[in-house]
Amino acid sequence: MKNFLRPAAFLLAISLIVGLAQEASPEGRPKSFGVPDLESDDPRDFGRGHRADYPTWSVGRETPNDVFTFARLRYPSYSDRRFRGGRWNTDYPDSDLNMSYRLQQMTSLQVNPNGVVCDIEQEQIRHYPFLYMVEVGHIDLSDEQAKTLRDYLLNGGFLMVDDFWGIDAWDNFHIALKQIFPDRDFVELEIDHDIFHCVFDLKVKPQIAHISYKESILRGITWEFDKPGSETVHYRGIYDDKKRLCMVICWNTDTGEGWEQEGADPWYFKEFSERYAYPIGINIIMHALTH
């Protein structure tokens, strides 16, 4: 499996072009698209046709291959039959499209306007230095898939795990984590870690609530109270042999919801999308690409 390079263009992305608050006018907010078409089994086709009326852009002709592509990981889970397409597609494609748009808008990264969905196969994931995976509380990996992810991560890849709540979800995910890394333990990432400061300087570990909990949020409850053990947000990491952070686990928070729902409610945009979801997302991606 290839080792991933961090091109010089990625290093320039630390310099922000404009402030998020300036650029986040209602006219500039990405739109929402609803449930994607799941008929195609080809991950390259998943979500295509959802860019109508959505901001798009072209990448520089000088370095067309030096482009960041947001890549979502498709994985098997115990409860896929109860969810159209599986839990892996939660918030898709809106969150991925919006995150790509804000990366292009907010940094000097060249960003592919069309993200991809990858299965856990070496030939697919080896092209992307950053992978995003959500709703892992029912994940069900084969030993071969666990090895594929282990090889990917130890050869320079990076995985962001997001949007799962409560003790039961953590316990189920931890089984898969030990499949991937039987001889490695996670560490708690404290507020002084680079992922909280490398681009945006965050003062707290963000807990990003689902927009459907608005009434509870207004009473100060930002966790999913119907899932025991979800009160406290955790950011946990796995390091490789070179002390490089290769996985960030965002437990008891829903970063992708902040990306997906940024245009749904001005209050939610201000309180969660602008204040936390995009800053922590951009920080994590920039840390992954520059370390």
By CATH, the topology is: Rossmann fold
Provide the structure class: alpha/beta
Spans of at least 5 consecutive residues with low confidence: 4-51
CATH level 4 superfamily: Domain of unknown function DUF4159
Portion in beta strands: 5-15%
Number of helical stretches of at least 4 residues:
9
Instruction: Find the count of extended strands (DSSP E, 2+ residues).
Output: 7
- Tell me roughly what share of residues is in helical segments: 25-40%
Architecture, CATH level 2? 3-Layer(aba) Sandwich
Biggest beta sheet attributes: 7 strands, mixed
Q: Choose one word for the global shape.
A: globular
Instruction: Name the average pLDDT.
Output: 83
Major beta sheet, strand line-up: 2-1-3-4-7-6-5
- Total domain modules: 1
Head-to-tail CA distance between termini: 19 Å
Q: Which CATH class is shown?
A: Alpha Beta
Account of the protein in words:
With 291 residues, the protein is an alpha/beta fold. It has helices at 8-11, 20-23, 94-106, 122-125, 143-154, 166-180, 214-217, 255-260, 266-290; strands at 71-74, 116-119, 130-134, 158-162, 187-188, 234-239, 245-251. It has a single domain (38-50, 65-290), classed as Domain of unknown function DUF4159 (Rossmann fold), CATH 3.40.50. The chain contains nine helices and seven strands; from the N terminus they run H-H-E-H-E-H-E-H-E-H-E-H-E-E-H-H. Strands 2-1-3-4-7-6-5 form a seven-stranded mixed sheet. Strand 3, helix 5 (143-154) and strand 4 (158-162) form a beta-alpha-beta unit. Helix 5 (143-154) crosses helix 6. The radius of gyration is 18 Å and the shape is globular. Mean pLDDT is 83; it is low at 4-51.
